[in-house]
Specification:
50% helix, 2 domains, alpha/beta
């Protein structure tokens, strides 16, 4: 069975790595050769680290490398896929463009999944000839560690499609939860509210970033503070999510002005070296 992943950023390469680790033949696609090469280097480094720490066997490393392919041409990457997981930027027009291409390229029976944290699989599926085979699979960063996959059913998504991607999730040792489509699903809707309120408190001088995060970790048992998490996700990504939820769900999701300011300044979090915290 072949899984193809479109987009080799942090989420795309994490999904590709986890799929290959679960025994699937995987094609990772990106139009940008430099980004694709970086993804390969990151995956190779993770394999080496995991083997050295004893998390995976040397035979597993060899098997993953044999079954993971890197391809800049979308048609070559996706034409034989049984499942394609799209992991491009959270921009609806971009996702629709990718899905329309995949609809032309892929076999009629191929399932098309979007790794979106907020956007509508119904709207995406409606732009294809197979809306019953379009679904959202929302993975979490870092993919190889996080156990949850939100499976979001669009209006036309079939029971067979949902069952298929749940089976894939289980083979990847993930717990799948089924969600009926609504903006933000479950996790993003809650997480964006918490993170946005933390940013408002920081802006208002209620407490420092460190103390806000420490309070959430020690007082509410969150494994990571909301500002740390926003830096990890990427402040530009978080802002796009907030803008979409503000547009669809209303005033309580209005992005914090501090978040807008940070993104304008290029303070995007961990990936840029500077966000609510500084990174070396």
């Amino acid at each position: 069975m072949q899984i193809s992943v479109v987009g080799s950023g942090v989420m795309g390469r994490g999904i590709a790595y986890s799929c290959a680790l679960s025994g699937y033949k995987v094609y990772l696609n990106d139009l940008n050769e430099e980004v694709l090469k970086k993804a390969k280097d990151e995956i190779d480094a993770l394999l080496t680290f995991s083997c050295e720490k004893g998390f995976i066997a040397k035979e597993t490393v060899d098997h993953v490398k044999e079954n993971l392919f890197y391809e800049v041409d979308l048609e070559s990457a996706a034409k034989d896929a049984d499942l394609v997981i799209e992991a491009v930027l959270e921009k609806m027009d971009l996702k629709i463009d990718v899905f329309q291409q995949l609809d032309r390229i892929c076999k009629p029976e191929t399932i098309l999944a979007t790794n979106t944290s907020t956007m509508s699989p119904t709207e995406i599926g409606a732009q294809t000839s197979r809306p019953d085979k379009v679904v959202a699979m929302h993975f979490f960063n870092p993919v190889h560690k996080m156990k949850l996959v939100e499976v979001i059913r669009g209006l036309e998504t079939s029971d067979e499609t949902v069952a298929f991607v749940k089976g894939i999730s289980e083979k990847m040792k993930k717990q799948a939860v089924e969600v009926n489509e609504f903006p933000g699903f479950v996790t993003s809707r809650m997480n964006c509210l918490i993170g946005n309120e933390a940013m408002n408190m920081l802006m208002e001088g209620v407490a420092s970033a460190e103390d806000i995060d420490t309070a959430m970790k020690l007082g509410l048992n969150h494994p990571m503070g909301p500002l740390e998490l926003a830096d990890l996700v990427g402040l530009d990504t978080r802002l796009r999510n907030m803008e979409y939820l503000y547009q669809t769900l209303g005033e309580k999701y209005r992005p914090c002005p501090l978040l807008v300011k940070y993104v304008k300044a290029g303070r995007l979090g961990k990936k840029s070296g500077n966000g609510f915290y500084k990174y070396t």
